[in-house]
């Protein structure tokens, strides 16, 4: 039983924050019944971008009442032509196509086995309220509030209602920086790698930590794409989920790769990345044996990849996300290809991604 937190319940008729400035991107090979659970929060004028992976001839049923656009592999090939080669097939990495075609400032991406989470809140008279928590609302709050990457704030989010900066926090730093990414977490099935899943098949995350914190500058983190929101205008071009799945030597490193690139670029451009609330309820454990096959090479490659990102230095001439990303792709080709020829291919795909992004989003090219 998760202990209650002091989060105010969201009435069903809550106003849809940023309703005209945010798209919700969902990768799927299954069905979208999970949207029923989100109906109180997402039926409002939030627009869904569904990226259908796998067999394009399969019909994905979308529950009534949702405003959406759906892209399958045929659509991706039609829209991007040869550049479609940079969008993964048979891997959730395909979701980044949704980021590219969106025209909104903000993106919230969620997996189709993630649910709004019921929370139990006890009150003085032991009246119990079961409340569905609106993860999207928390992500929006995270993105609209500044981050504090330069100097660690020990009492978590100083911009949160009812909180403030603690003694000793420099006043010159209290304005903070713009927040580019809000990384949410998960209750129930934790996002473990395959070896951990295999040794701990029954482990569930029941620990709810009522906190949001900025990831300090110069620190990398394992970004999970399950419950993630970001400012597309600030960091969208860096949210490429790499070459994974069909025909590739690794999988399930899509969100991780994007997170490492994003954090290096956010640190360089002075943008913030937050992790913590909101939580979603992750319902399905994927097959650890299938996952082990996908992750196997990544598990030992990352021992070289992480030091690469930790030492990556972008030039002062790189002032846009695209310029940072192209510089990073050159470093990947130069410094990681020795691990495996895959990285030379990935570096080329990173360039193709930027070309495709700029083609579909000429406004952000500058
Ligand atoms: O080939 C595929 C497989 C899956 N999807 C869609 O992607 C998400 C996540 O799939 P699933 O829940 O089965 O996998 P998890 O192990 O729980 O996912 C974690 O690993 C990351 C994938 O690298 C993911 O972001 C994490 O949550 C679902 O929506 C599937 O429908 C797909 O599109 N193609
Ligand atoms: Mn899952």
TrEMBL record:
Q: Which residues form the signal peptide?
A: none
Say where the protein is mainly found.
cytoplasm
Where is this protein localized, as stated in its record?
Answer: Cytoplasm, Cytosol; Golgi apparatus
Q: Name one Pfam family in it.
A: RGP
Q: Per its UniProt entry, what is the enzyme's top EC class, as one word?
A: isomerase
Q: Which reaction does it catalyse?
A: UDP-beta-L-arabinofuranose = UDP-beta-L-arabinopyranose
For this protein, the Enzyme Commission number is 5.4.99.30
The answer to whether the entry has keyword Glycoprotein is yes
Q: Which UniProt keywords apply?
A: Cell wall biogenesis/degradation, Glycoprotein, Golgi apparatus, Isomerase
What is the purpose of this protein? Probable UDP-L-arabinose mutase involved in the biosynthesis of cell wall non-cellulosic polysaccharides.
The Swiss-Prot or TrEMBL record describes its family as follows: Belongs to the RGP family.
Task: Name the chain's protein.
Answer: UDP-arabinopyranose mutase
